[in-house]
Amino acid sequence: MGGKNNGAKRKGKKSGKPQRGQARAGGAGGNDFRGAGFTGSQVLGYGTMTANTYVQQYAPVPTALDALPQPPAGFTGREDDLAHILGVLDPDRSGAGPAVAVLSGWGGVGKTTLACASGHAAQERGWFTGVLLVDLRGYDPQPAQAEEALEALLRSLGVPHEHLPPPGAGREALYRSQLNVRQEKGERLLVVADNASAVAQVQPLMPPGHHGMLITSRHRLTGLGRMRTVNRLQPEDAVALLDAALKNNDPDDPRVGEDPEAAERLASACGFLPLALQITAALLAQDPDQPLSERADALGGTEGVLDGLDDGERSLRTMFDQSLERLAVQEQDLFRLLALNLGPDISTSAAAVLADQPEPATERLLARLAASHLIERTPAARGRWQMHDLLRAYAHEQAAAVMDRGRAPRRRYDQARDRLIHHYVQCAQAADTHLDPPGSPVSARFTGRDQALAWFDAERENLMATAHTTPQAGLDLSFALGPYLKWRHRLQDHVVIRALALDACIKLKDTQNKASVWNNLGGALQELRRFDDALHALETARDLYHQTGNINGEASAWNNLGGTLQELRRFDDGLHALETARDLHQRTGNTNGEADAWNNLGLALLERRRFDDALHAIETARDLYRQTGNTNGEASAWNNLGTTLRELRRFDDALQAHRTARDLHQQTGNTNGEADAWNNFGGTLQELRRFDDALQAHQTARDLHQQTGDAHGEAGAWNNLGNAYRGLRHFDDALRTHQTARDLYQQTGDAHGQATAWNNLGTSLKELRRFEESLQAHGTARDLYRQTGATHGQAVAWNNLGNVFQDLRRFEDALRAHETARDFHEQIGDAHGQAVAWNNIGTAYRGLDRADEAVVAGERAAAMLAATRDWFNTGEAWGELATTLTAAGADAARVREAWEQSADAYARAGAREEADASRERAGGTEPVGVQPRAAADRPESDGPSGPG
Fold this sequence. Notes:
- The protein is 63% helix and 4% strand.
- The protein has 948 residues and is mainly alpha-helical.
């Protein structure tokens, strides 16, 4: 087939426009046989040469220099690959070296299609006058030899069959000679060697001079040119290919557009592999009424994914068979054994255990499998290997086929699986010793805590998969892996591994570990906020420990029970449980356990707003943690101490406590604890009116919680971030962040957290003058607080409801709401909350023109707030009182004194702008642009961290 002349100029070539044409008979422009020796050819003419070689001249024959097929419908997603290849083929490229690109990747990934698209793109740029294509059939039972490929290329170049030299050096020399002559004539050809399996197939085909070459292979063929690995498509590109392939058969096929979610599932089931997608499109074209969801379900169901990727003409399994058959026996065996590892990747050391071979030998085999693209190196970590899902399915088939051959191969595979399980369990137990309290014996297998955590991080998914293999593995890994999962806040995995241990105890009839298993399950359920389930598990554990006389275990169960009861808002029962845990730990001399109990007891007292008692409890916990060298526990205590100090209005001390907690958590690598410290640090900064700094602290906390996947902690950070935005008067941002917090709390099932977010949401809506929505938000918060038994929360919600009523000038409703808030605060002994409520009662009285009662309420609020050392709200209360006195027609001196008191309080709070405004009013000058917010609008923050 003749080529078409596109007439495009080629850049930078002295010969100008590329020319095509045949050599004239007897002319100098024909085939050049310099260096070749031929026998048995018909002689058209002869002459005497120094080498006594006959020169043959023959008539022109057709050439085939337009051999590239068009890419299939839907070619997409290869922009970066295409740019790389064109950079290699560009005649004006910088640097020396041949214009040769080697494309490697596993079967079906689209290497040939990419090579064709690259060839067309290069021709469109005028870089080549023709293309030679040869299929080397590298993975067929009988791959093409280099001599056969040379014959095909020479015939494409116009050399008649009868004039071809015999296989050997002469044929290669003729090929090079032909290409040299074409270069002299200003032509530049692109040679595409498709489907090569060995360097020896390709090396003789390498073009001389300025010609270009593209090579595709399922192996990494080194030493030929610039290498490029072709990977599977991105999800959106895979869907686009599927859509284009369907519409190539029927332009009106609507299925991808009508069900994009099913299209994404189908593309994922095809592994985002172009060949699999093309096969799937062909099968769908044969059944135009089949929904994409049905096809996606079939590929992921009992049919088997490889069975479903065969359209009668193309089969993914056949392609994989071809690749596997090219491997050495040891390589094939290791590929099948890798299917026994149930996780997403495997380390070299684990693969060596599986293969029962030394690590260096195993690594060489793994490297050969990677060179064949049957596995690949894990990009994020050296020494780890992974397998595509479709290849994994194929490896499982291969392993099953070997085991079906008889008892001996099945026993061999069972032994390999047992070795791998034993390896994972032993390593996990060794790593776990480095997470034990300081002073405990540690395994020498790991150099320290950091290396042990890094191993757990790398192997977590493998360990979780291994835990499902046998009951004993589930039990062993529950104890070895559980503390790490709690440390990294992998809450779902933590519950799963603890539940597996309970199942294992039942199956193994293990009564010795049953209490510990129930206790661990209860702790995991508590962290996942499944409190009712946690309560049942922990009460079961407590009773089992008590029956066996295990006092330490019983104390641990009581401690966990205390935390769960607190979350269920059963505060008195929670306090009793924690005091019992503390006393039992003291009896057995378990200092770390006693510290945990004191720390949790402090949190319970903090919740009851018994701040002085909480301070004592948490300081005791901190000192005990320090005494035992438990840095992580000490960090938790410092964090809780900071929150308590904040409630006591000792803000500078609170900041220092949170800084200490943050630094200690960083030291131990506890990212979640560090996030809690940042969050609480930001809360204290807000009390100091340092909203910009608070914003940064809460953003840091949010990012760290996102990093660890802690949705509940992230919700708290978002909620407090909204408070900081509101402090900066960025009300739209505040609204958005509180909505995010509310949704995350709902997602994690935390009704109390939802109430807090709704309450803050209502305050932001009020600032945006969206009063009806604000009333609804505060009403929702109040109801949720009532459901969870949170009296303090109900008080805050009622107070904020009253504030909205005041803005709506519904002063009777406002008065009732503030009085209800005051009574709730009085019920729980919250003097600060009572003071805020009294302040708002005073403003409601003022709205009702009940001046004398307003003055009494305002004076009471100012005195109570000063007693709690809340100087900012004291300043607000004195300002409100001054306004009330003015409305009541009080003496000017008394009004001025109230404004001066307001200015002094603001100054003590560091609120300079507000202090200046009050001073101006004291002097009789109306200030501009300052409107203090009401004390009732103080936001609710999400509070202390959990126990150590």
